[in-house]
Amino acid sequence: MREVYKDIYMKELPLPNNPLKYLNFYLVKGKDKSMIIDTGFNREDTKEEITKAFEELNIKPENTILFLTHLHSDHTGLASYFEEIGLTIYISKIDGDLLNNSVNKSDQMWQNVIENAKLQ
User: Fold this and answer.
1) Quick one: which of 105, 39, 47, 45 has its CA closest to 72?
2) pLDDT band at 108; cut points 50, 70, 90
3) Residues 6+ away with beta carbon under 8 Å from 49
4) Distance between CA atoms of 76 and 96, rounded to whole angstroms?
5) If you compute the radius of gyration of the chain from its CA atoms, what whole number of angstroms results?
6) What's the CA gap between 81 and 57, in Å, rounded?
7) When you count CB atoms within 10 A of the terminal residue's CB, does the N or C end of the chain come out lower?
8) Which strands, in side-by-side order, build the sheet including 2-5?
9) Which is higher by pLDDT, 106 or 16?
10) pLDDT over threshold 70, residue 110
């Protein structure tokens, strides 16, 4: 973790087997509430790295919100984990609808993706 601006911290989260190599994970430390930006992949080692960041900065997850910049799995991978532990999650309406539909109606959503790809 390194402080990139007052109370804004950044950590490189590894993205194994991905040409991008890592995701810039941000944690904004607030007086009453803090915010994390994006989550990395849904991997146990990524979850451990984020947990260490909370501990290192003395931030309680229950006083934190999650902001997802966009729908890619390297940004949203641990969203369900953070929802389970009680974080409020923010994402754009369009991506939020897609994300919710991918969980609730995954077969139809992926069928639509395949059909749209054929049109390209």
Assistant:
1) 39
2) low
3) 11, 13, 25, 40
4) 11
5) 16
6) 20
7) C
8) 2-5, 8-14, 22-28, 34-37, 64-67, 88-90
9) 16
10) no
Half-sphere exposure of 93 (CA within 13 A, CB side): 0
Residue type for position 86: G
pLDDT tens-digit series, residues 7-51: 999 999 988 888 989 999 999 999 999 999 999 899 999 999 999
**Alpha carbon of 72 to those of 2, 47, 54: distances in Å?**
24, 17, 23
Provide the domain limits for residue 8.
2-119
Residues 32-44 have pLDDT tens digits of 999 999 998 999 9
Residue in the structure block whose two tokens are 């109606």: 105
Total domains in the fold of the chain: 1
User: Could you tell me where the DSSP H helices lie in the chain?
Assistant: 44-56, 73-76, 79-84, 93-104, 106-119
- CATH number, domain containing residue 100: 3.60.15.10
Residue type, 70: H
